Amino acid sequence: MTKPLRWKRVLLKLSGEALMGSQSFGIDPMVVERIAKEIADAVALGCQVGVVVGGGNIFRGVAVAAKGGNRVTGDHMGMLATIMNSLTLADALRRHKVQARVLSAVAVPSICETFSQRVAERYMEDGDVIVFAGGTGNPFFTTDSGAALRAAEMRCDAFLKGTQVDGIYSEDPKINPDAERYDTLRFEDVIQRNLKVMDTTAIALARDNNIPVIVFRIHEPGALVAVLQESGRYTVVGS
Ligand SMILES: Nc1ncnc2c1ncn2[C@@H]1O[C@H](COP(=O)(O)OP(=O)(O)O)[C@@H](O)[C@H]1O
Ligand SMILES: O=c1ccn([C@@H]2O[C@H](COP(=O)(O)OP(=O)(O)O)[C@@H](O)[C@H]2O)c(=O)[nH]1
């Protein structure tokens, strides 16, 4: 018998770098294909899924600012990068027979629909996967914050952050391999101890809307369904 789902409606956040695979830039089609399959498997179990993809594999506004350029223009370019990633993921989902919609916070009507909460709600009720593109639509924000915002707007049961690491540690495990790993944490712990797995705005938004945050490694085959069925390895952040 199939295990029941712990969370029925989720927001899955993937960094742009998650789509890069072993490349140093851009999109690895094999990785996108594998992630699309993970999402298709979750949908087949009756999960309603919204996805936010970052843009860091293509462009980050801070990189422009660091070289003395205009941060706002850089952020606009970063948001456009998230649209490119979203289009790729939506195509891959369609290849897996999933009805996928790209809704962008930044209006590019000849390419994809513009985000509106009401339309998004209808699509989610229909079981379509929504790929939320363009972050929050504003500079000086991140796609983690955009994802927390969409999770709140769509009344998601959980915010699933699919990363390269299998949970939250006392320090970045890529820098300190001896860092301690946690199964559970409170929002306040993440904020006060400055555990930098996601930005504080995003964590605070999840806390204020009582949406648990789950951090897990997306590159393990079956990882998403395992999290949904409470059998995977992950850290849960709650109140
Ligand atoms: N305390 C921490 N616990 C876990 N990961 C952390 C921590 N501090 C920093 N990180 C880093 O944050 C990264 C996750 O954020 P992000 O860059 O958005 O995703 P990705 O892992 O897909 O690149 C991890 O890969 C990890 O290297
Ligand atoms: O609401 C948003 C979301 C993203 N961005 C820009 O888009 C880039 C890519 O997003 P992010 O860094 O969050 O991607 P990730 O790290 O998840 O790949 C950021 O660096 C910003 O320049 C932005 O300006 N506003």
TrEMBL record:
GO BP: 'de novo' CTP biosynthetic process; UDP biosynthetic process
Pfam families xref list: AA_kinase (PF00696)
Domain annotation Aspartate/glutamate/uridylate kinase: ranges: 8-216
CDD domains tied to this protein: AAK_UMPK-PyrH-Ec (cd04254)
Entry's EC annotation: 2.7.4.22
Catalytic activity: UMP + ATP = UDP + ADP
Keywords, ordered alphabetically: ATP-binding, Cytoplasm, Kinase, Nucleotide-binding, Pyrimidine biosynthesis, Transferase
Regulation: Inhibited by UTP.
Pathway linked to the protein: Pyrimidine metabolism; CTP biosynthesis via de novo pathway; UDP from UMP (UMPK route): step 1/1
Positions of UMP binding: 55, 75, 136-143
Enzyme class: transferase
Subcellular location: Cytoplasm
Subunit structure, interactors included: Homohexamer.
Cited function: Catalyzes the reversible phosphorylation of UMP to UDP.
PANTHER family linked: URIDYLATE KINASE, URIDYLATE KINASE PUMPKIN, CHLOROPLASTIC
Alphabetized HAMAP family for the sequence: PyrH_B
The name this protein goes by in its record: Uridylate kinase
Annotated organism of origin: Roseibium suaedae
